[in-house]
Amino acid sequence: QVQLVESGGGLVQSGGSLRLSCAASGIGFNTFRVVFHMAWYRQAPGKQRELVARITSGGDTNYADSVKGRFTISRDNAKNTVYLQMNSLKPEDTAVYYCNGNGPAKEYWGQGTQVTVSS
C-alpha cells in the first residue's frame, strides 16, 4: 500500500528554521523518480489548504509567493523522500503541513505534521 509519512514538524521561534521530510513507501524507486510529482501543502486554523511548494519528477520547482525565497523543496529519489527546508519562519507559517504525491491517475496524502512558529 502506498503511504506518505511526514516528519520534522515542531515548535520554533520566529526567524528560526525547520526541515520537513516526507517518506514515500509502497512505490517503486523508478516509479517515484520518473513519474511522481511531489508537493507540500499547509492548512492553518480557519483557512483553506494551500499549496506551499511543488517539485516535478524532472526537478522543476515552484512556490507560493508567501514562502518564495525562504522555503526550498527538494527530493532524494534514492530514498523516495521529499524535503521542505523552511528558513526565516514567521508566525503566519503556523499550520499543519501535508505531503502530497501525484502519480499516474492517483493522488496520495500524508497525515500531516504540525509546525508552530511563535512570535
Short overview:
The protein is built from 1 helix and 11 strands. The protein has 119 residues and is mainly β. Strands 2, 4, 5, 6, 9, 10 and 11 form a 7-stranded mixed β-sheet that branches. The chain has a 4-stranded antiparallel β-sheet with strand order 1-3-8-7, with no helix packed on it.
Describe the structure using short key phrases.
globular; four-stranded antiparallel β-sheet; seven-stranded mixed β-sheet; 119 residues; 6% helix; 1 helix; mainly beta; single chain
Could you explain how this protein is built, in words?
With 119 residues, the protein is mostly beta strands. Helices cover 6% and strands 54% of the residues. The chain is built from one helix and eleven strands, in the order βββαββββββββ. It has one helix at residues 29-35, and strands spanning 3-7, 10-13, 18-25, 37-43, 50-55, 61-63, 71-76, 81-86, 95-103, 106-109, 113-118. The strands form two sheets. Strands 2, 4, 5, 6, 9, 10 and 11 form a seven-stranded mixed β-sheet that branches.
